[in-house]
# Entry
Amino acid sequence: MKTARIIQGTFVFLISTAFVFLSGSAWAEQLTPEEELGKSIFFDNNLSFNGNQSCAACHDPAAGWTGPETDINAGGAVYEGSIADRFGNRKPPSSAYATPSPVLHFMIEKKEALFIGGNFWDGRATGEKLGNPAADQAQGPFLNPLEQALATPADVVELVCTASYGDLFRQVWGEEICDPANVDMAYNDIALSIAAYEASPEVNAFTSKYDHSFRGQAKLTKQEQRGFALFRGKGKCHRCHISNGQQALFTDFTYDNLGVPRNPDNPFYTEPVYNPDGFGWVDEGLGAFLATRLLDYAPYAEANLGKQKVPTLRNVGKGSCEAEPDNDDCIVKAYAHNGYFKSLKGIVHFYNTRDVKPQCADPFTSETDALDQGCWPEPEVEVNVNIDELGDLGLSPEEEDAIVAFLITLSDDFNP
Ligand code: HEC
Ligand code: HEC
# Structure
């Protein structure tokens, strides 16, 4: 009897430990109510002028949280908004791994102001409003006439309050959050919820082959290892795309002008209402944003014209036919702020040979034509081009391929 009770007790103990253990590990992958709310908002098509566009339209997990359409990526690389024929002017960067970016600030280095942090290619989602660049960013698209195109914060709040997840919204942020007097607070809380989701382990997953190799659950091939060594050494990639250890984000959140050419297919060139300059328009990046900050940053604008944010390289290959030729749903992806490059091989070749090849006669030469003609077009913005860290790397074709193979190990959802 006694022994039986002890055994029974031990059994119950084991069962309950197993239960705690299982629910513990399941918990680690489960979203908090705030993250779950942010996820519902992120994927809700209804939160747009025509009820046809969510954040995921331009930030699809299957495409590494960027634009998923081959037709678009292979051309202008800029996505249409909720209202037809309205386009922004840049390629969507990954919305994953954006949350660790600090509030925009600068340090003085070699007598120059080095800007760090913020979201968007030009850092204009500074994080100064909500203490978090990703949350500041999340308030942009709903009201951007070239994106989700809703009229006012009150419209967004009303749609969230009446959505199927409206109760969750009130549960997380309080019963009175849908009171019209609280619209500003509610709009902030919507953005904070999205940022919480973007910071969750479902989005910043760290589940690539690269990550698994640190856990001893995968081994990089010889070629991938060689690519990693070149990435950190001869290729100089690590100088901006920091690659230290398993938690590496592959960005230092600074800004640079790589001399990326114009993308001739950018639909913004032919959108006179929003772009009166037509084909004369250039994307001045961080510098143009700093120029708007008359009270503090404007004096640094000139030295930052043409600089764009160093993007994370996590998931750059994700979903692409270059990386996943056996994936039936694979797509063409676009790279850099204007999507000029259509493959990782193309952009790596540019880093390697920008200053070696002659300049194409036409500044509006596409990547395909430039590769055919053996030239590169002039930079979109001629000033402040970085000539110290790229342009003539002396990489052989095999070395370029090895770097590409390494970049492909950074795709999440790797199955060891
Ligand atoms: C029509 C396409 C489109 C839609 C819809 C859209 N985005 Fe974006 N997203 C972009 C583009 C383009 C950029 C870069 C814009 C720029 O730099 O000026 C961007 C930038 C971002 C960034 C910045 C990443 C970084 O590292 O700086 C985040 C985060 C993001 N979007 C999240 C969202 C969220 C959240 C939503 C929904 C509320 C959303 N996006 C809706 C196209 C879109
Ligand atoms: C001097 C800093 C710097 C160095 C060195 C550097 N990069 Fe970059 N990288 C950037 C910046 C800035 C961008 C965005 C440029 C733009 O859009 O105009 C970028 C963009 C990219 C992109 C496009 C990502 C996307 O989402 O569109 C890839 C891929 C990339 N870099 C890979 C590399 C590789 C591989 C190397 C080494 C061969 C390298 N980078 C070296 C700063 C750097």
